[in-house]
Amino acid sequence: MNQRPLRVLLVDDDPLVRTGLSMILSSTGDIQVVAEAGDGDEAVPKVTMHAPDVVLMDIRMRRMNGLTATAAVTALPNPPKVLVLTTYDLDEYVFDALGAGASGFLLKEGSPQEIIDAVRVVAAGEAMLSPRTTRKLIGHFVATRTSPRRHRARTGLSTLTEREREIVTAVARGGTNAEIGAALHLSEATVKTHITRIFAKLDATNRVQLTIFAYEAGLVAP
Questions:
Q1: Cα separation of 168 and 148, whole Å?
Q2: Cα separation of 216 and 222, whole Å?
Q3: Residues near 42 by Cβ (< 8 Å), separated by ≥ 6?
């Protein structure tokens, strides 16, 4: 039985960007662009109408930016995964979009294969994309965050056990569950159980948010 294609919604105010992304993704055979939106305020209605698996979300748009749109999309019941589209150096909002529940980000100048791979990885449930670059980006923005955010992170840190702190640190460094288990002499299932408990304690929904927390709490240095 053939598996149905991954359904993608493109949200970007540049029609040329949308056209390019659509051509790249549609060339694969296993990814289908089901709809496009020209601004963030169209994202929730398009998600409701077309039920995509993944949303590619631009950050800077005229009416509603990608931060607000990401928060609205991830608040929906059974939301799709959100990948933030960023120009990297210019998009200071990308950090907050990740904090709002985005599963990762894509650089607009990324290669076609990187874009295709990112959609597939996120659709499969992996939250971290290109961990080295993600950590660099998150570290850059965490270094400029205000002290109240750091205070809240350190308060959350106090709720974690020593083992949970080790696992959060390993997640922030890009470790997979299997790699974390091998390093800490735990089974992969045990690592998954710990991460589920950590999510509940920190009110987090994905590994990107754990990475942000680790930087803000001082477990990992920018």
A1: 21
A2: 9
A3: 11
Query: How is residue 192 written in tokens?
Result: 């998954």
pTM of the model as a whole: 0.70
Quick one: tokens of 120? Answer: 């597939």
Q: 79 — phi, psi (to 5°)?
A: -70, 155
Q: In what helix (H) or strand (E) does residue 9 lie, and over which residues does it extend?
A: strand 6-11
Closest residue by Cα to residue 127 from 75, 91, 74: 74
pLDDT, greater one: 48 or 214: 48
Q: What pLDDT was estimated at residue 1?
A: 46
Q: In this structure, what token pair is assigned to residue 113?
A: 């294969």
Q: Decide if 54 contacts 81 (C-beta within 8 A).
A: yes
Please name the residue that has the structure tokens 């470790």.
175
For residue 36, the SS3 value is: strand
Q: For residues 138 and 4, which has the higher predicted lDDT (pLDDT)? A: 4
